[in-house]
Amino acid sequence: MLNVSAPGPWSRVTTDTQIGQPVEIRGGWGGQVNDEIVRAQWNRVRGRLRDEFGEATFKSWLNPLSLDVVHGGQVRIGVPTRFLRDWVATHYGDRIRALWSKENAEVSGIDIVVMPNREKVAETAAGADAPAAARLPAAPATAEPVNVADDISAALDPRYTFDNFVVGKPNEFAHAAARRVAESDTVSFNPLFLYGGVGLGKTHLMHAVAWHIRERNPGRSVIYLSAEKFMYRFVRAIRFQDTMAFKDQFRSVDVLMIDDVQFMGGKDSTQEEFFHTFNALADQGRQIIISADKSPSDLQGMEERLRSRLGCGLVADIHATTYELRLGIIASKAEQMAVDVPRKVAEFLAHKITSNVRELEGALNRVVAHAQLVGRDITLESTQEVLHDLLRANDRRITIEEIQKKVAEHFNIRTSDMHSTRRARQVARPRQVAMYLAKQLTSRSLPEIGRKFGGRDHTTVMHAVKKVEELRGVDSSFAEDVELLRRMLEN
Ligand code: ADP
Ligand code: MG
Predict the structure, then answer these.
(1) pLDDT at 103 over 50
(2) Residue 277: Cβ within 10 Å count
(3) Is the CB of 328 under 6 A from ligand 1?
(4) Which pLDDT belongs to residue 69?
(5) CA separation (Å) from 339 to 314, 346, 364, 368?
(6) pTM for the whole structure
(7) Does domain 151-318 have CATH number 1.10.10.10?
(8) Mutate which of 358, 359, 360 to test ligand 1's pocket (most atoms within 8 Å of Cβ)?
(9) 254/223 Cα distance (integer angstroms)
């Protein structure tokens, strides 16, 4: 792989191309060593990438890149893991090369190589003299301070950090808002209201804010708890005639986070108490962060004044995941688990498990656990087998009827032609495409699919699948058509 001690025309320099991660690079090409120039060029390339792809994408995928060496017209770039290497190479490789070539006409290609130890080295090297804001967060588990908040705050999941949160279009805004709250000492919007469907990362983001604040400023008391816990404590306080202590506790915190406030719906006395707590904290300039499954105005059984109070800060919603985000999350989780998930399997999962991140994660865990148990590599076949039940459940979203309708519309034929015996090419081809998509997008068996297409035999379906695959290989506009249809059906 990489020969760091190789003698050659390269000189050793230290650069801080990654924030807080000074790494050693060797710069220069063709014996004409010029570290300063190399470093400046790399910084400009990074700047361009950040501008072009946006802060969120940059942070998730491009920030971990480190410049290793420029030599013989090749730029060698290090990444910490194989997953990242594959991802960066397929998604950003061409662009990185183009930007480098623009910076320096001598550069003709880039190598992206795995340098697993680099991160660790860099972390230790960051040392105490790196600026606090730029330093990498320490492992949360060791950073947890002892303070009054521990009394009432629920435990925080050490995996739910900003580092482990994959940012994409659907959660970009919520993520940016959460980061802003975590990083600023003054209250910029109150409350921050995060909402979105189940399993899309609301709790993860809240924990991430809590970890970040606790680590940066152990003196601030941060309380995170579910609305249910809040209610429970309140009810108990009433029972034990201890409401004064309850009020004092909650009103002395710096940051209060209440997760899943929809559960307060219909609980009038708890809402009342929460409303007063909220006002007391807000009046003192303390930060409040709320999550729910709906926007403030859509919350059921909430008193109007509370609803409007909840909506008066910044309201950020997390949208359903996209294919791209799901793929990114799989890559990230696989990396955390240090397992090798073939690209095909990752793509398959991202295509099939579309409900939410929690389910996606669960599916990946099952696949990994199974592979480790039987001591075999993860393959597409084993994945399909292990997730059989789950895939069927997710499938219900796309029906064969839907596929037939969309495909017929697309090719401008009648839906009834999907069942007919007409063999004319302009009808037969779309029918084959629909069969192919039915095989791809549902987990129906070949005979089942055949039945839905006017009672055809399973060998006819098999033939259709083969034919479409063959055509996709030779006819790029046909391939595009099929891909477009697939996308339309999946969204
Ligand atoms: P919610 O609170 O919205 O129901 P969670 O925060 O509990 O969802 O997320 C469900 C699971 O999915 C968690 O394990 C979380 O770590 C994971 N998850 C959700 N979104 C992301 C993301 N963008 N990146 C990484 N993991 C995520
Ligand atoms: Mg949650």
Answers:
(1) yes
(2) 21
(3) no
(4) 84
(5) 39, 12, 11, 8
(6) 0.58
(7) no
(8) 358
(9) 8
* 336-395: CATH topology: Helicase, Ruva Protein; domain 3 (1.10.8)
Domain boundaries defined on the chain? 2-146, 151-318, 336-395, 400-490
pLDDT of residue 441: 86
Average pLDDT, the chain: 83
Type of residue found at 417: D
Return the best residue to mutate from 57, 159, 200 for the ligand 1 pocket (most ligand atoms within 8 A of CB).
200
CATH of domain 400-490: 1.10.1750.10
Q: Of ligand 1's atoms, which has the minimum distance to the CA of residue 198? A: 4
Least confident of 309-313, 344-348, 481-485: 481-485
Task: Please report, rounded to a whole number, the percentage of residues in the chain having pLDDT higher than 70.
Answer: 85
- Quick check: CB of 156 below 6 Å from ligand 1? no
Contacts of 114 (CB under 8 A, 6+ apart): 1, 78, 79, 80, 81, 82, 85
Give me the residues near ligand 2 (ion), CB cutoff below 5 Å.
202-203
147 vs 371, residue with greater confidence: 371
Q: Is 198 in the pocket of ligand 1 (CB under 6 A)?
A: yes
Topology of 2-146 in CATH?
GMP Synthetase; Chain A, domain 3 (3.30.300)
pLDDT value, residue 350: 94
